[in-house]
Each structure stands twice: as C-alpha cells, then as structure tokens.
Amino acid sequence: MKHLIIGNGPAGVVAAETLRKLDASSEIVLLGDEAEPPYSRMAIPYLLAGNIGEKGTHLRKDGGHFQRLNIKLVEGRAEKLDCQTRSVTLSSGEKLPFDRLLIASGSHALRPPGMDLPGVHACWTLADARQIMAATKPGSRVLQIGAGFIGCIIMEALAERGVKLTVVEMGDRMVPRMMTAGAGQMIRRWVEAKGVKVHVNARVENLTQKDSALLAKLSTGEELEADLVICAAGVAPNVSFLSGSGISIGKGILVDSSMQSSVPGIYAAGDVAEAGDFHNGMPVLNAIQPNAADQARVAASNMAGFEMTLAGSLAINVLDTLGLISISFGHWEGMGGKNGDGVELMDEKHFRYLSLQFSADVLIGATAIGLTDHVGALRGLIQGRVRLGVWKQRLLDDPTQFMAAYLGAAQKLA
Questions:
Q1: What letter would DSSP give residue 113?
Q2: Cβ distance 169 to 351 under 8 Å?
Q3: CATH number for the domain including 357?
Q4: What CATH number corresponds to the domain at position 281?
Q5: Residues 50, 160 contacting (CB under 8 angstroms)
Q6: Is residue 308 within 8 Å of residue 298, measured between CB atoms?
C-alpha cells in the first residue's frame, strides 16, 4: 500500500505518524513544497519576537524522527492530481503514485492588489520571517494590514521587536472573525493603550514608493508612511492544483465525517478541508491547529482501514494580544432562530468580557476576555452538548457561574 500525503504541516505530520502506528509496513511519502523541515506556521511569531530559534518552529525537533519511522520526506509542489491514474504530478514533472491520498496542502496568505512592492511582506513562511527580521529594528515604522487572529499574533511579535506599529483592519473591530463587536472593540482599546495605532473600517487603497519609504493611502483618506508593510489580510485554501480532478470543492475540499473527499480513497485534513460543523453539520472551513490534528488522525485511521469518524468541526480560539488573553469557542456569534439567545457581560475598566450563546438549553458558543480561568469548562459544556436545564437561567442571570454550571449539569456534582 502506498500512502501519499500532500503537505507537511501539522495535519500532514500527524497523519503520517498515525498511519505508521496503524500500518508498520506500507510506504508513506510526505510531500512539502518548502526547503525546510516540517514546521509550524503558528510558531513563526515566537521566532520574530526572539523567543525561539528556527529549530523551535520545527514540528519534530529530532532530526532523525521521520527516518526512524520510515516516512519519506519529499520536496516538491503538487501541480496536478489525476484521480484515474492515482498519481500527483509535481512542478518538476515528476509523478508520485499512490493507493490512498491525503490532501493536507494547507492555505496561502492573501495579498491584496498592489502589494508587490519591495518592502511588502507576508508573514506566512520561514523565508518571510527571515526577511522581516532582517528589515526591522527598534523604531522601524511598520504598517500591518489585517487584525485577525493571525494578524494579532504577528502584531505582538512585532511589538516585541520595538517597532512603531500601525494596524489597518477593514472590519469594524479587531479579530472580527473570532470576537463579538464588544470583545473586538475591547481588544482594540487594549492595544491602543499599549502604543499601537489601530484603524478599523479602513483598507489600504494605494501603496506607492516615497523615497526610501512606502506611502499607504487609506480608504478613509488618511496617508501613512512606513518602512515596512506586513500583509496579514487572511488566508485561502491551496486547492488550485485540483482543477479538473473531479474532487468536489466549495471553499475548500468537501469531506464527509471520515474526512474522505468525493473521490474514494482520497482524503483531506487541515486548512484545506471543508468538514461538517459540530453543531449543524454544514460544511465549514475551520483553519485552526487543534482541528487539523483531529482531522488528520481520523483521515489516517480510515486510510489504514480502521473506521473512524469526526464528531464535527468546532471553533477553538485562544489568543494572547499584548498580554490580554481572549478565547472564543463554538458558535460564539450565536445561531439565531427562535431557540437562540444569549447573555453579555462587559467590564470596560478592568478589560473583562464574557458572552454566552445558547440554542434552547444547550451552550453552543462563548467569548471571554480576562475572565479566562476555567475556560475548559466552557469548552466541555459546548463539546458535550450538555443540557443545562435550570442552569441556563442561572447563567443568563450571572454568566460567570459557568464552572458551577459545568459541575452541576455536566458532572452532576451540584
């Protein structure tokens, strides 16, 4: 049996290791398109901040790890998938055959039009990180486009480097795809108090060279000068090489609960996989590392012949923004409908926030800032689909009692 895995990020590595545990003899090829050992993109900000060296970004620190597991690492970029011949053609022209395939090709950083000038960088690869570290020093004027989850992590790393940082976000708040309006605005006030300038409801409409600097014109009419521009405007799944393959694609690769695509024997996991939502089963892209690992284990188990299904894709976000810890789980924005309701608690002075969202008497989503002790209880209530009964009204009256609700409703201890 020949197992081919496209993508050597967290999903690909976990899948390869799971396959080897379940199948001691089959061939496993792990394909990556960078001249780097398998590494975690989420570790790059820690490299920028100087908290780790490059080896600290590697997913497996032992250089002989994959060799001992008899997992073959191949460098190359997938250009075409032929489902009929069961082969993947690389940009070099080489063809890799397979019996079963896992597509864990991840995603790529989006770059708005006009962002191709020298001094404009994404922050998505180790190569990007090296360029940014070489170009920044204390006092450098840095303009960052995007204040989403990844953007906020990059922002913290840049602040650690002592740069003068300005952030432009086209949404009406920071982290708009993870935080409620109240929470996102609270994070904005926090970072502004730390010396970061933030523009929301704004986008860079034009970027030009001005002497040795870059000049950005915003949609608000303002003009900003910068020595360096970091583009953190979001990501999109790497699916272009699947054109004409016959694999069903929505925003990403559509998969069933076994992580199998529309073509038998071909699976997907991680940023590229559009799996069923935990609560409503609708296809959703959920590009976070915990989901990637779970999906990889499920896909690999089925590739090895052991039936396994995914309970559903659940949003699990934990963010440290210049020392302010925030979380969002599940359907943090609520699901609406006649059975949907929620409660919001905000302490502006102490930067504390809590929002709970319900469907009938089941907690389906939560957002918290500052009040993050015991947040595992929130995740437990959501993932357990716990019927709260009388505890729902108690939480509507005082949402900070979620730990007591977990003990009372889920653990039956109170």
A1: T
A2: no
A3: 3.30.390.30
A4: 3.50.50.60
A5: yes
A6: yes
Q: Would you write out the chain's pLDDT as a tens digit for each of its 414 residues?
A: 999 999 999 999 999 999 999 999 999 999 999 999 999 999 999 999 889 999 999 999 998 999 999 999 999 999 999 999 999 999 999 999 999 999 999 999 988 777 888 899 999 999 999 999 999 999 999 999 999 998 999 998 999 899 999 999 999 999 999 999 999 999 999 999 999 999 999 999 999 998 889 999 999 999 999 999 999 988 999 999 999 999 999 999 999 999 999 999 999 999 999 999 998 889 999 888 889 999 999 999 999 999 999 988 888 999 999 999 999 999 999 877 667 799 999 999 999 999 999 999 999 999 999 988 889 999 999 999 999 999 999 999 999 999 999 998 877 654
Torsion angle of the four alpha carbons 401, 407, 408, 413, in this order, in degrees rounded to the nearest 10: -140
| Paired sense of beta strands 213-218 and 204-210, if any | antiparallel
Q: Which two tokens stand for residue 300?
A: 């690999």
Roughly how many angstroms between the first and final C-alpha of the chain, as a whole number? Answer: 53
**Nearest CA-CA partner of 332 in 169, 116, 171, 179:** 179
Let me know if residue 308 belongs to a domain. no
CB-based burial label for 341 (10 Å; 0-12, 13-18, 19+)? middle
Judgement on whether residues 129 and 227 belong to the same structural domain of the protein = yes
Closest CA to 271 of 310, 301, 235, 297: 235
Q: Evaluate whether 132 touches 168 at the Cβ level (below 8 Å).
A: no
The pTM for the full model equals 0.92
Q: Which range of residues forms the domain containing residue 95? A: 2-107+236-303
Pairing of strands 352-359, 2-6: unpaired
Output the six-digit token pair for 239.
């699916």
For residue 272, the 8-state DSSP code is G
Q: Who contacts 247 (Cβ-Cβ below 8 Å, separation ≥6)?
A: 81, 83, 253, 261, 262, 263, 266
Angle subtended by helix axes 289-303 and 10-22, to nearest 10: 30
Q: Give, in order, the Cα–Cα distances in Å from 279 to each of 146, 224, 332.
A: 29, 43, 12
Cα–Cα distance measured from residue 334 to residue 356, given in angstroms and rounded to the nearest whole number: 8
Instruction: Give me 326's structure tokens.
Output: 């925030």
Q: Is 318 helix (H, G, I), strand (E, B) or coil?
A: strand
For the chain, the domain total comes to 3
Q: Indicate if 94 and 150 belong to the same structural domain.
A: no
**CA distances from residue 221 to 202, 206, 263, 280 in whole angstroms, order as listed:** 9, 11, 50, 42
